[in-house]
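Thread amino acids onto this structure.
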């Protein structure tokens, strides 16, 4: 019997969808070993931080929250073990103990399966800091491990790990390694099992899904994978992340022709300046990106397009930034994640000198945020009076009588809980909602017909 049986645990996740998926696997492993989930870290015998190192803010939040565990009240078993995994663990390894004395266990991105053993050692060997070799490889994909899904109706399905692109600002290839794909048969098999288990929406995961299969088939096979997963009976299919350089016309056709693929695509542009894109090693120009957007809209006229944009990359001038603003207008994004550049140690861009004043970068960021909000509002106005299909995720945190979900275009939708229905009955159901109000970041409406 596992020495972890009966111990309580809490998992805190920073960062991307890949980290969220890894956290679900960590929770599955802990529950398989008899651990019990609790709502607050102070209640837990085991606290696991799954980390992201893409932006500096995540580092700071990790250091603050993990260090706070030192002064937290003792847990039920009398000893708390703090484990740090994910990308920061992979990047920093031994250095984490210098920054975070509370860390008892450090495990890298490919060492999830080692966690129960490492936790057991930490509990049994009082006062000893346990660390796994964060360069450990060969344990396969985390999807081979048990999972505790956050939502029964939604599942993340990784199709590949790693990235070969080496954008100059990005740490991912160094902490996740080179591209490694699962076979089409393995991905389809997992999707079939999830559909049989009641999952209604699947999101395929990869650092660059458009290059899926290159390492095992000799060429990208993402379009084939989309068509194959589309035949599993899944109702809603999404995918992330998508690099413009590798998005082929065949993939666009597969998106348009596979009915369950949702009419939303997140296509990170990062900058509207060809000069900056070259410095970022993004492998496409401004003109190529906009031409790609044109082909997408020709194939799927109703497509909602969102993006990522970095402001203040070291070589960015005012002219470069104006190119970004004009691209945002021309592409017609319905939403965008905008970030001020933060140098990541170990990346080529971190060595590029930049003397642009912080106030200038902040002013540019504010202008971009205003434009993105304006376009998001205008995009949502086109939904007024329309009936949208909403996968219900649960009641609003502010009002238990308001339900929240996402439309096929990935819009957040609020609607009132109908009389006679319990909120729990609607979670995981698909509802038709007539849009009565369109705000910048969400839609509000009323349910029509019966949930299904």
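Threaded sequence (452 positions):
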């Amino acid at each position: 019997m596992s020495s972890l049986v009966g111990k309580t645990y809490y998992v805190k996740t920073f960062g991307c969808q890949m980290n969220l998926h890894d956290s679900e696997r960590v929770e599955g492993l802990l529950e398989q070993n008899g651990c019990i989930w609790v709502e607050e870290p102070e209640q837990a015998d085991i606290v696991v931080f799954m980390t992201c190192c893409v932006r500096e803010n995540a580092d700071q939040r990790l250091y603050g929250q993990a260090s706070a565990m030192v002064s937290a009240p003792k847990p039920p078993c009398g000893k708390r073990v703090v484990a740090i995994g994910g990308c920061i663990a992979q990047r920093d390894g031994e250095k984490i103990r210098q920054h975070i004395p509370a860390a008892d266990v450090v495990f890298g991105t490919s060492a999830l399966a080692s966690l129960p053993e490492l936790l057991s050692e930490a509990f049994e060997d009082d006062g000893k800091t346990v660390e796994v070799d964060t360069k450990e490889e060969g344990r396969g994909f985390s999807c081979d491990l048990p999972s505790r899904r956050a939502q029964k109706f939604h599942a993340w399905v990784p199709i590949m790990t790693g990235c070969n692109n080496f954008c100059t600002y990005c740490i991912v290839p160094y902490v996740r390694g080179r591209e490694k794909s699962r076979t089409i048969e393995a991905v389809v098999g997992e999707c079939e099992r999830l559909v049989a288990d009641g999952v209604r929406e699947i999101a395929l995961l990869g650092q660059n899904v458009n290059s899926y299969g290159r390492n095992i088939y000799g060429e990208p096979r993402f379009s084939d994978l989309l068509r194959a997963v589309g035949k599993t009976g899944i109702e809603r299919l999404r995918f992330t992340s998508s690099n413009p350089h590798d998005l082929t016309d065949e993939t666009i056709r597969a998106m348009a022709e596979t009915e369950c693929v949702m009419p939303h695509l997140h296509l990170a542009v990062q900058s509207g300046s060809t000069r900056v894109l070259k410095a970022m090693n993004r492998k496409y120009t401004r003109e190529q990106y906009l031409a790609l957007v044109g082909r997408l809209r020709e194939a799927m006229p109703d497509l909602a397009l969102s993006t990522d944009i970095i402001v203040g990359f070291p070589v960015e001038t005012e002219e470069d930034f104006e190119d970004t603003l004009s691209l945002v207008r021309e592409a017609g994004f319905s939403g965008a994640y905008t970030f001020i550049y933060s140098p990541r140690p170990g990346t080529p861009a971190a060595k590029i000198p930049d003397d642009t004043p912080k106030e200038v970068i902040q002013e540019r960021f504010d202008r971009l945020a205003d434009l993105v909000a304006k376009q998001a509002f205008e995009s949502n106005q086109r939904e007024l009076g329309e009936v949208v299909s909403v996968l219900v995720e649960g009641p609003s945190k502010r009002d238990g009588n308001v339900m929240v979900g996402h439309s096929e275009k990935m819009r957040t939708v609020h609607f009132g809980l109908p009389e006679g229905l319990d909120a729990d009955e609607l979670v995981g159901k698909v509802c038709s909602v007539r849009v009565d109000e369109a705000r910048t970041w969400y839609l509000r409406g009323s349910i029509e017909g019966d949930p299904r």
